[in-house]
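Let's practice the habit of predicting before peeking. Look at the sequence and jot down your guess about where helices and strands might fall. Then scroll down.
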Amino acid sequence: MKRFILDKLNAFLSVLGLRNNIEEPYLPPFKPVLPDSKVVAWLLSGVDAEYMYGSREETPGLCPACHNTVEKLPDLDYYVPRTNHFQETYDGFVIVSEKFRMFCKVQHFNNVRFIPLRSPGGFYILETDDILEVNEEYSDMPYDGELCPVCGTHEWHGLRMIYSKNDLSDDDNFLKRPSGMFGPDWRKGYEFVVGKKTATLMKKFGLRGIYFHEVYYHA
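Done guessing? Here is the structure:
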């Protein structure tokens, strides 16, 4: 369900009758899950949504040198055709429902921001400055492409597996994000992680269509 899976992007372009021009990045082998690892949180993903911007040229917030995303600047007039509680556009924006916002309010997630879209139905761009400290040695977050000397990003930054730097057993109700953005070029976006307790509460609250992927910790 991750928006930067290239097969899905190419399939989407084929439906539109466009050339499949998203090149496959160099991918090293998948890192294995370490023995005695434990799940301490969950990485969120949701249903795919249409591009917010039609092309790189239309997209604001890009590096002037490499055209990678350096700032997410949403189009507030973007129309949201689906009613899902957690959606990810192909160009890296995460859209949540009013019910998702109310859940975060009930949980007192005070550092989570909701930028309202003008689309009917009550939808928001999800943002937060609460950062999950990641163990980069154990995590599987490959790069491809040269490092831009202007913005300091690579053309492609994958996110295949996360290890938290800290054991989150005593901090199990939160919504955070890993530092940086993930995905290809101008379609990079933020990823969001919730605590184990948070995931259970989300399901009880009736937030459907959200997928949970393991975040590990290894001592």
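How did you do? The longest strand covers residues 38-45.
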